[in-house]
Amino acid sequence: MSGDRLRVAVLASGRGSNLGAILEACQGEDFPARVVVVVSDRESAAALERARAAGVDAIFLDPKAHGDRAAYDRALIATLERYRPGLVCLAGFMRLLSPAVVSAWSGRLLNVHPSLLPAFPGLHPHRQALAYGVKVSGATVHFVDDGVDTGPVILQAGVAVRPDDTEDALSARILVEEHRLYPEAIRLFAEGRLVVEGRRVFVKETT
Ligand code: GRF
Fold it and tell me: Is the minimum distance from the CB of 112 to ligand 1 under 6 angstroms?
C-alpha cells in the first residue's frame, strides 16, 4: 500500500518522541500514511537523527540564514512543497508559523499539545496546569489555525494530576497519551474520516 499512503511532513525542534511514535505507527502494514520528510529549525534536534535512522529525509532549515519570520516561512513552504505532503504535522516545533504557512496547508496541518485545550495553551503547559491546581490535564491533537493552540480539537485524552506531581512527572504521563493520540489522528485524517464543522471535528464511522 506504500505508494498510495498519505504523504506526511513532520516539523520538530527537539527530542522528537512524537515523531518516533508516528514513525513507528507508519511501520504498520495497514497504516495509511508515511513520513516523507522531517524539517527542524535546530541543527542538533534529536528528531533529525530519528528521521535519518528511519531512512527519512531530514532537513535543518536554519533560522539565521533567513532574515525574518516571513523569509523563513517562505523557505519552509518551498522546502515542504518539494515533498508534496498531504498533511503537515507539528511535533514540538517551537516556532510560531505565519499565516502563509497555515493557509498553504489549511485543514491539513496538525499539532499536538500537552494540555486539555483550551486550557493552558502556549509555553509551559504542565507548569501552568500545576500552578492552576487542576486535577486533570492531558493531551490534545488539533488542527492548526492562525492562533496559538486554538484550532479545532481532533482527539483528547485526560491524565490525572497527582498531589505530588512535578512538571517532569506530569509531562511523562501526558507524553504516553500524546504518542497514542497523534498516530491515531493521522490515521483518521488519512482515512478521510475527519469532518470539520466550525470548531467541531466529527469522526466518521467506517462502513
Ligand atoms: C510535546 O510535549 C508536544 O506536545 C509539545 O512539545 C513536546 C515535544 O516533544 N508540543 P517531542 O519532541 O515530540 O518529544
Answer: yes
